[in-house]
Amino acid sequence: AYTTQQRHALAKFLMESLGAKKIPPKSEAAMLRVLAALHEAKADDIFWSRIVPPYAADVRAAALQALGNAEPATDKRMQALLTCAAERDFQVVAGALMILKKVPANAKNAKHWIKLLEAPDVATQRFAVGKLHGIENAQVAQAMLAQLRHPDRNLRDEALHSLRGYAAGRAAVLEELSEAAEVDRAWFLARALTPVAKEFTAAQRT
Description:
By secondary structure, this protein is an all-alpha fold. Helices cover 65% and strands 0% of the residues. Helix 1 runs antiparallel to helix 2. The chain starts with a helix and ends with a helix.
C-alpha cells in the first residue's frame, strides 16, 4: 500500500542499514525479506553478496529467496549458486536450485552440473542428473556412471535412463560391464543394457 516515494525511501534506509551495521542474523534475514518485497532493482547486489559464507544460513536463504527471478549473469554468481546447491542446509539448497532451474544446460557448461553430482543432498544430485540429461559426451557419461553405485534407487534409475539414451552413455555402461568383478554388479549392468542392445555397433555386439 506504500506510495512509490515511500517504497524507495524504505528501500534506501534498509540498504544503508545493511551496508553500515553489524546486524544479528535473524534480524538481517528479516530486513532482506522486507527489502525483497519492495522490488528495488538496486538491491540485487546486496542479495547476491549474501548468498555465500560467511553469512549465516538464515541470511543466505533469505537472500536466495529474494533472488527468485534473477539469473546469474556472471561466472562468479554462477559459482556462488553452485556452492549453495552443494551444501547440506535445506533452505539454502532449495533456494539455489530454484534459481539454477532456469539456467540452461549444454555441453559447454556441463562441468558445472557434473560438480553437483557429488553434493551431499540426493535432491541436488537428482537435479544435476536431470540437467545433464540430453548432453551426450564421454565426460558426462562417466559422471553419470558413478551414480549407478549410489544407494538411492531413484537416482540410479534416472542416471541409467539417461545413459541408455545415447551412444557414449551405452558405451560407458558396456565398458563397466566388461570390467565388473562382482557377479551382482555384472548382472545389474547386463540387465540394464538389454533393452538397448539393438543400438550397439557391430564391434560392441561382438
